[in-house]
TrEMBL record:
SUBUNIT field: Associates with the pre-60S ribosomal particle. Interacts with MINAS-60 (product of an alternative open reading frame of RBM10).
Keywords: Cytoplasm, Nucleus, Phosphoprotein, Ribosome biogenesis
Organism whose genome encodes this protein: Ceratitis capitata (Mediterranean fruit fly)
Protein's name according to its UniProt entry: Ribosome assembly factor mrt4
Entry superkingdom: Eukaryota
This protein's record includes keyword Nucleus: yes
Gene encoding the protein: MRT4
GO terms assigned for molecular function: RNA binding
Amino acid sequence: MPRSKRDKKISLTKTDRKGLAWKQKIIEDIRHCVEKYPNIFVFQVQNMRNSLLKDLRQEWKSNSRFFFGKNRIMQIGLGRSKAEEVEVDLHKLSKRLTGQVGLLFTEKSKEEVLEWAQNYWAIEYARSGFKATETVVLPAGPLEEFTHSIEPHLRSLGMPTKLQKGVVTLYSDYTVCEEGKTLTPEQARILKLIAKPMARFQLTIKCSWTKDTGFELHVEDNINDDDDKTDSGQGDEVEDEEMDQDDSDNEDEDD
């Protein structure tokens, strides 16, 4: 049998990876934004969703710029110490770039951004590891919202289902999750299948810096601003691949 033309071996050593040039571009973009925008905010994300962050980027595109990626790279862009900072007190923002956080450069006033962040949220489906906000129990009986073809999948997730005259049916009551308990991957999938969102995508403004008033802390922490040592950026590994993708999308956007 002749060998298929599609049957080709690709060496992974030849695939492109984001290297020094990519990191340097982000650093330069951040420094450019420091000059361009009068206000900078460090925001923390709860229940991160790439699609919602991309929507925000699009919505704020005309007068703002979001960065959400490698914390250490963003720290270098702002300056990790008094000696490195590109503007006075920007190293204080760098110290707070830990965990799932990002930078917002904007022409909008501090008051506008704080009010918007306080009122903005979006409901999303919970992922595994999330603590259930309520107890969800499905009563025995037909599940008419599902087609017969999905019944094996429901069974594989642990649901006591069967086909009865071509209709997916629960043959006993089934507790999907209990309030306060951590969701398993199977439970998270079931909640999505039954259209039961529990998580909130939300942003919290940790601190800000403006060209007029300088640095301001909005969420109390135990970081010593007098200490010239900067956090190593722990927390970068959380959803690392998604964050990297977000940064590459961000760099493709026009200022």
